[in-house]
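Q: How do we represent a protein-ligand complex in a form that can be generated token by token?
A: Start from the inputs.
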Amino acid sequence: MNHEKALVEEAKKKAALAAVKHVKDSFIVGLGSGSTAAYAIEALGERVKHEKLRLLAVPTSYQAFLLAVKHGIAITTLDEHPEIDVTIDGADQIDAELNLIKGMGAALAREKIVASASKLNIIIADESKKVRVLGENNHPVPVEVLPFAINPVKRKIEALGGKAILREGKGKLGPVITDNGNAIIDAVFGLIGKAAELELKLKMIPGVIETGLFVNFADIAYIGTSSTVEKIERIRHQ
Ligand code: 5RP
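Then emit the structure tokens for the protein with ribulose-5-phosphate bound:
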């Protein structure tokens, strides 16, 4: 691993370690997806092992499920535990109000469901994820779509001013298929001034299952650098 990459991994780990401190004995924990969330799952596994924490976890993806099993964290479901004490998850972009773009790992639908069932949502990331405005650098909004509706949804996203690209798999020919059996359209809108408005418009398109815009979900973000961790708390507007 080159030096720069090692520093980024260190930053992700630091953010993850800060977040897992919020977890207490007997908690129901939402496990996020992605490389940063993976560090949190590993650190939670360590706490289960050394502090004998009795946790039950709801994974947001097959990746998170396998990591939980690997690190000795017991699994539960939203059917058994519809209320989660704390969820720790990563993000692709984070603005100053803690609005997010998520879903580059294609787990956005379950991530949003788990976040909406959580009393506390903690986001962990390295500092490259912080942006002034969501959509910076033409970052796409991932949109999970019923396969039957791919083309009509693409056309409707384009009518909203976005560029719609069907996400292709790596290591397999053809489109990415999510854990829910759906496709992902990456929708590029440029700078997203009104994320809540865009989110509503996208959700109104028949065939759209979920979008990667997470508005007013995150409560706390831990942003790691190679030497420190910044804590940002969401200001709640009345
Ligand atoms: C998956 C996600 C991830 O949390 C997001 O892509 C961040 O991943 P990473 O920590 O690997 O950068 O939303 O759907």
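The chain has two domains: 3-131+216-233, 136-212. The domain at 3-131+216-233 is CATH 3.40.50.1360 (Rossmann fold).
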